[in-house]
Amino acid sequence: MRRKKIYEGKAKVLFEGPEPGTLVQYFKDDATAFNNQKQGLIAGKGVLNNRISEFLMQKLEEIGIPTHFVRRLNMREQLIREVEIIPLEIIVRNVAAGSISKRLGIEEGTILPRAIVEYCLKDDALGDPMVTEEHITAFGWASPQDLDEMLQLTLRINDFLNGLFLGIGLKLVDFKLEFGRLWEDDQMRIVLADEISPDSCRLWDVATNEKMDKDRFRRDLGKVEEAYQEVARRLGVLPEAGPVDMKPPKVMQ
Ligand code: TMP
Ligand code: ASP
User: Fold this and answer.
1) What is the pLDDT of residues 53-67, one digit of tens each?
2) Would you say the CB of residue 128 lies under 6 angstroms from ligand 1?
3) CA within 20 to 30 Å of 4's CA: 63, 109, 212, 242, which one?
4) Is there an atom of ligand 1 within 6 Å of 30 CB?
5) How many whole angstroms separate alpha carbon 119 and alpha carbon 140?
6) How many other C-beta atoms lie within 10 A of the C-beta of residue 50?
C-alpha cells in the first residue's frame, strides 16, 4: 500500500490516514537511547509495541480516558486520530530509577513518597530538558488549564496502570506520556497520544526485580526481545505466530 509520510520519529512513522483527521501510526524495530547517541534494533519490537499500546489505550478508554487510538490495522500499524501534539513529555515516577536517581542521588528501587510528575520539553536538539510549569505557561507550550487537565489524566492513568501491571506481576516504576489537542467543531479536547509500551515505561518483575523494558537495551543487559515478548505475553497480547514481520508501506513522493 502507498501512503504519504507525514512524520518520522525514532521509533515510529506517521502516515496520512484513510480519512481526514486520521493518521496511520507505524511501529518500527529501531531503538535509540540517550537522545539518539545509542542506536540499535530490537527484533519484533514494533509488532509488540503496536499490540501493547493498543491494549493499554483500549483499557484506558474503558475507564474514560480519551486517547488518540482508533483501531489496530495490522501487525505494525494502528489508525489514530490526528492531534496537535503538546510539546511536552510528562513523566510519572513511583519508584526511583534512571535520571531521577542520577540527578538527586536516590538509590534505584527506592519507593517514592508519592507519585512524582516531571515535565520535559520535547526537543531533541536540546536533549528534552526538564522544565517547570512556569516555563510551560510563560512560553505558551500549554495553558494552565491544559496543564491541569493533563495532570489529572496522568494521575488517573498512573493509578490504573499500577493496578493493571501489578495484576500481571510487574511493578510500574515510571513512564512517559504525551498528550495532544483534538479539535471537534471549535471544541478542544486533550487526549492521550503517542504510545504506552516497554519503550516508554520501566517495568520490573515483582518477584525478582528483573527489568522488563527498554533499560535492557539502554544498559546492555541482554534478553531485550525476550523482555518485550514477556510483557506482551503477560498482558495476553503476544501474537500466536510470534512477531511475524511485514514490509513498511511504500512512501509516496
Ligand atoms: P528517565 O529516568 O530517563 O528520565 O526516564 C523516565 C521514564 O520515561 C522511563 O520510563 C523512560 C521514559 N522516557 C521516554 O519514554 N522517552 C525519553 O526520551 C526519556 C528520556 C524517557
Ligand atoms: N528515546 C530516547 C532517545 O532516543 C531516550 C530513551 O528512551 O532513553 O534518546
Assistant:
1) 999 999 999 999 999
2) yes
3) 242
4) no
5) 14
6) 27
Q: What pLDDT is attached to residue 252?
A: 64
Report whether CATH 3.30.200.20 matches the domain 5-83+224-246: yes
Distance CA 17, CA 5 (A): 10
CATH for 84-205 is: 3.30.470.20
Relative to the CA of 201, which ligand 1 atom is closest?
A: 10
pLDDT for position 240: 82
Q: How far is the CA of 222 from the centre of ligand 1 (A)?
A: 19
Same CATH fold assignment for domains 5-83+224-246 and 84-205: no
Dist. CA 10 → ligand 2 center (Å): 8
Q: Report pTM.
A: 0.95
Rounded Cα distance between 192 and 213, Å, is 21
Question: Tens of pLDDT along 32-43?
Answer: 999 999 999 999
Domain residues of the chain, as ranges?
5-83+224-246, 84-205
In 10 A of CB 145, how many CB atoms? 11
Ligand 2 atom index nearest CA of 200: 7
Is the C-beta atom of 101 inside 6 A of ligand 1? no
Q: Which ligand is nearest to the CA of 201?
A: 1
